[in-house]
Amino acid sequence: MATNRIWPIVAGSSFRAVLPANTSRYFPVNGNLFVTSTGTWSQGVIRGSYTATAMFANVGSNLSTGNSTIFLSVNDVDSALKVVIAATTTGTFVDTANSVALVDGDVINYRSTVATGGTVGIQVAGIGMAQTGDIGVNFMMARGANNWITAQRYFPLCGTSVLQTVEDEATMRFQSPATLANMRVFISGNTQSSGTYVFRLRLAGANGLSSLLIGSSQTGFFEDVTNVDPVNAGTNANFSGSGGSGGTLVGQLTQIYVTSTAIRFALSDPQASPQTATMNWPIAGKCSGVTTGSDFIAYILPTSGTIGNLWFKGTYTPSNTMAVIVVKNGADTIVTGSVGGAGSGTRSTVINSASVLSFIAGDTIYLRDSHTATGTVAMLLFSVDFTPDLDTGAGVFDLDRIERRFGRGEGRGYFRGMG
What torsion do the CA atoms of 208, 212, 216, 219 make, to the nearest 10 degrees? Predict the structure, then answer.
């Protein structure tokens, strides 16, 4: 009898990422769907053993006159796991035919090849990571090319890696107990002439055990393979960095492994601009607001399970209120509760620990906001627990159902709606 859980890994962005024709582009498997021409800038490392399966991509625009392909790249080589995007076609593309074994030390990301004739726009991509046992070991990643300066700055754990001067603007809440380890960064440039830059994990406003020391002029990957940080339910967590002198570091990617019975879907953009219109967001990644195209930000769950422990942090004007709603298969479901009224630009957090929502393989999920017509709102950070069901052979991981909804094979099936 199978004893796997399938852990969903999602990369997303409210802004459509453009994949150009006739050249390779790369983006991470988790966090902000940030596209680059350099593969190493988006590579995450595997710690443990998994089977990657049920890869999908949500395509919102397609001007290409030929078939395009997005591969799961493993150790800089295209794997068998891929989605094939038909010429000029938009919608959801799923690979239900292939799977790939991943072992400790593998580095993974996505690589795209777009045919001639035009660009392809993508907003969400994901895979299912099967692992034996009851406890998941999964990673949170944040992506974004930023200059890390000597002064103290704070970073979100997942989503977009922007630097904040106020720690509260970068911290997100763990609603379930977890263990954090294998903190990792990629530095593509370093003009510091002396001293040491210290990158560390912060828990509840204090230094955690996990830390990295980056000397002047040093670049590449840095990973803390020694320290482990236990996290209690209700603990706020973020990264921080400071130190060195004479220049800056260019940080491309951050990553940390999370051991827990629930995976934490997380969105972040602490510098999101306030909006007046209704906003839609993917379940994970970057949460800058969009007002249309909600079909193309929906994520397909590769397994059954439950969602709960919603948490978000937002800002609003005095005359406004704001709530975040989980949209399942096109219909509103869980509502976080609302914030509002304290003053212009006020940050406030909301927690909904009471509501729990069940999903089955092939269900779709995204987020939208609900706010009054006057004034503006912005979501800065969001997270929610997803607990996958234990696969006992009873249809928990149902590729047949995904195929019936979205097509069979390596992404040749597609559809135009999410309702």
Answer: -140
Element (H, E) at 402: helix 399-406
> What single DSSP character describes residue 271?
T
The CA distance from 18 to 14, in Å, is: 12
| 361 pLDDT above the threshold of 50 | yes
Q: How far is CA 266 from CA 6, 10, 31, 276, 302, in A?
A: 18, 9, 8, 23, 17
Spatial separation of the C-alpha atoms in residues 30 and 140, rounded to whole Å: 7
Pick the CATH number of 4-134 from 2.40.50.140, 2.60.120.40, 1.20.1290.10, 3.10.20.30: 2.60.120.40
Domain boundaries, the chain: 4-134, 138-260, 263-406
- The 10s digit of each residue's pLDDT in 141-163 is 777 667 888 889 998 888 877 78
Q: Please, what CATH class does the domain formed by 138-260 belong to?
A: mainly beta
CATH number among 3.20.20.370, 3.30.1540.10, 3.40.710.10, 2.60.120.40, domain 263-406: 2.60.120.40
8 A C-beta contact, residue 50 and residue 104: no
State yes or no: pLDDT of 74 exceeds 50: yes
Report the distance separating Cα 330 and Cα 283, nearest Å.
Answer: 13
CB 239 within 8 A of CB 138: no
Residue 398 pLDDT > 70, yes or no?
Answer: no
Q: What is the pLDDT of residues 274-303, one digit of tens each?
A: 677 777 888 888 776 555 555 678 888 888
Instruction: Transcribe 192-251 into DSSP letters.
Output: --EEEEEEEEEETTEEEEEEEEEETT--EEEE--S-EEEE-TTEEEEEEEEEEESS-EEE
